[in-house]
Amino acid sequence: MEKQCFSTVFYMIRNEPFLPHTIIYPIIYQAQIGVKKLKISIYSRKSIEKLLEKDFPENAVVISFYDPPGKFRDAEYRPVDYSAKTNCVFQAALHDIDLAVLPKYHLTYETYFPEVDDLAEFIFNAKKEGKDIICQCEYGESRSSGCAAAIHEYFYKDGIKIFADYRYYPNQMVYHNSSLILPAILFLIISSSNMHAHNSR
């Protein structure tokens, strides 16, 4: 998909005329690929590394957030290595910060999470293939829970349960970006599918 298309749809979803699609297209999507409920788990680096030493789930994909290079991390710091267990991994270097401090990191809302459109496609592919989703970040409290809450809210309208769980402090930037882009990506997926079907006639 062209990045320009993502930008256009991202603009559309921020404006009122597009908002009804956030209700319509999830219904169409569920009808197209079935209704197997996603199992969404949240892990810290420490807990996932323990799991990797044992029986890592075969039917799971991973969304892994790690800290970008900087003064808070030494030169040896690396993302979690999943290569021995799975190659179904989406990794993103993302600061665990909120809107108020973005300028200190020379970031804006639009530049904070540039991989979010690719992440949305990754999530839809996992859903289509009947996979479970592991969301992992450094402490398993903020970025991973923000992503998990967005997935729960989009598919099942129960993201609030992640916010209500005392163990988690969902990152609002991750949650809001993911919540906005999921309907936009679905719109493009279905539009592309319909165009292909029309051209095949």
What does the model show?
By secondary structure, the chain is an alpha/beta fold. Helices cover 48% and strands 11% of the residues. Strands 1-4-2-3 form a four-stranded parallel sheet. It is globular.
Short description:
The chain has helices at residues 3-13, 21-33, 45-52, 109-112, 116-128, 143-156, 160-164, 172-199; strands spanning 40-44, 60-66, 89-93, 132-137. With 201 residues, the protein is of the alpha/beta class.
Lay out the secondary structure.
Layout: H1 3-13, H2 21-33, E1 40-44, H3 45-52, E2 60-66, E3 89-93, H4 109-112, H5 116-128, E4 132-137, H6 143-156, H7 160-164, H8 172-199
Helix pairs in contact: 1-8, 2-8, 5-8, 6-8
Helical element count?
Answer: 8
Helix content: 40-55%
Principal-axis shape equals globular
| Strand segment count | 4
**Main sheet record:** 4 strands, parallel
Give the radius of gyration: 17 Å
Summarize model confidence as the mean pLDDT: 81
The arrangement of helices and strands along the chain is HHEHEEHHEHHH
